[in-house]
Amino acid sequence: MTTAQGARARARQEVTAAIKEAARRQLAAEGAAKLSLRAVARELGMVSSALYRYFPSRDELLTALIIDAYDSVGEAAERARDAAADAPPPDRWTAVCEAVRDWALAHPHEYALIYGSPVPGYSAPETTVPAAARVGMVFIGIVRDAHEGAGLGPLSLPAGLRPEGARMAADFAPGVPPEAAVALVAAWAQLFGLIGFELFGQFNRVVEDRETFFRHAAGRLAEGVGLGRR
Question: What global pTM score does this model have?
Answer without folding.
Answer: 0.93
